[in-house]
Design a protein that fits this description.
The protein is of the alpha/beta class. It has one domain: 3-Layer(aba) Sandwich (Rossmann fold), CATH 3.40.50. The protein is about 55% helix and about 10% strand. The protein contains seven helices and five strands; from the N terminus they run E-H-H-E-H-H-E-H-H-E-H-E. A five-stranded parallel β-sheet has the order 3-2-1-4-5. Helix 7 links the parallel strand 4 and strand 5. The longest helix is centred in the N-terminal third of the chain and has 17 residues. It is globular and about 50 Å long.
Length: about 140
């Protein structure tokens, strides 16, 4: 069981080599570090959007995007990826009603973290602090 789940922003900081985040991830590896399938989806959405912005007249510009997408996918699949289970989906449905102004992706990530009894590691604490029962920590500060 993973004690910590990295939010999408923290995952990106880790991938980019932000020193404070890398150090804390390494410190807590034995405790268990995971990401969610939602963060995986968000990253793939970003890569797909970048691919769609490339002009059809410049296919060579696709190459570095696909290279980075491949690297990110290999990296993420080496991590523990927490699924969006039926229990998480049911919790998410309740949260959508309670936190109508919150981002759907954030609520799905929160539901997975709560269902996994894990602490969510995020730099976006303001987006998550309203969610009752969600444990948060910020490793980017």
């Amino acid at each position: 069981m993973s004690k910590f789940i990295l939010d999408t922003d923290t995952l990106q900081y880790f991938q980019s080599g932000v020193p404070d985040v890398v150090e804390r991830v390494r410190m807590h590896l034995a405790d268990g570090i995971a990401i969610t399938i939602i963060s995986f989806e968000e990253q793939l959405d970003g890569w797909n959007a970048a691919l769609k912005r490339v002009s059809k007249d410049h296919p060579e510009r696709l190459v570095p995007i696909y290279d980075k997408m491949s690297q990110a996918t290999r990296f993420m699949t080496e991590l523990d990826i927490k699924p969006f289970t039926l229990d998480a989906a049911l919790l998410y449905a309740k949260m959508r009603k309670a936190y109508r102004r919150s981002d759907a992706y954030d609520l799905r990530i929160a539901a997975i973290a709560m269902n996994s009894q894990a602490t969510l590691v995020t730099n976006n604490t303001d987006d998550f602090k309203i969610i009752d029962g969600l444990r948060l920590v910020n490793w980017a500060r």
